[in-house]
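Dock tryptophan; give full complex structure.
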Amino acid sequence: MKTMKFFAFVVAACMLLAGCSQSAPQEEGFSIGILQYMEHTSLDEIRTAVEEELQQKATELGKPISVEVKNAQGDPTNIGTIANQFVGDNKDLIIAIATPAAAGAAAVTEEIPIVFSAVTNPVEDLQIDSLEQPGGNITGTSDAIPVEKIINVSQEITPQANCYGILYCTSEPSSSGVVQQAKEVLEQQGKTFVEAAVTNTSEVQQATEKLIEQCDAIFVPIDNTVATAMSVVADLAKDAKIPVYAAADSMVRDGALASAGVNYTNLGKKTAQMAVEILQGANSASMEVQVMEDVNVVVNEDTAKAIGVDVSQYLQ
Ligand code: TRP
């Protein structure tokens, strides 16, 4: 009899355990892979904001979100390897920071939801259907670049600037549209320009030196490759007393004179919020791409002093 009772107890205990383990997945958290294209001030800022917001949301949800961060160091082969690893690990969602990372993730999975961050031209460069209805498994945030505003600010600070050197990398998809717009705006305003196109970071120094000889201002579009070498550009330009006008606030923190652009911490937070909505069941295909359009003018006071220009009207 005792044996029977014990047996019944063991069976009951097993059923309880089995029951528990069946409900366990509901209690389990989510697993996200973050693929960052390369390291530079702005992409690092975005990643930090994404991670902080995800942890904040996890606390609100009462569920853990485990995050694996991988940096492709600007190498297309690494992008593919990391994206494939995330797919192999069966991540619940992938967050891809910057255009090349997003394109690489989109190339390896149509199943796992992808939320991209800071992709300047998602319709052209990621072939989504539209900003309103991206379709497929991919949506995210985009940074609008106010090219005309940047050129106007440049003319307010240095009205004598007539020839602009445009410095960009040929393989950066986010740059090409902005370069095109910059040329149009400069032409409309009766200015001239010279282009210096590099193929990688190591060419930035020489290209900058050339532009300094030919021009009286430098314009840098939203270019990841040039962003990684921004301090080189800024130091050379400072020595030559040439103003550098850039497409992102991070480049001003790294020594450029001025910029008008979006807030990338807000953009990172928004990216994380979209990711959490999808993890909770929202459909990425119909989730509108969020274009960050609140533009701030930022100036670097140290650079202004070093090259002898007045930026007081932009200081709060
Ligand atoms: N928008 C860029 C892209 O689409 C990424 C980016 C975000 C960036 N912040 C930047 C590039 C600052 C240069 C500087 O790839």
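Observed: Residues 42-43, 98-99, 118-120, 143, 174, 222-224, 227, 248, 250, 264 surround tryptophan (CB under 6 Å).
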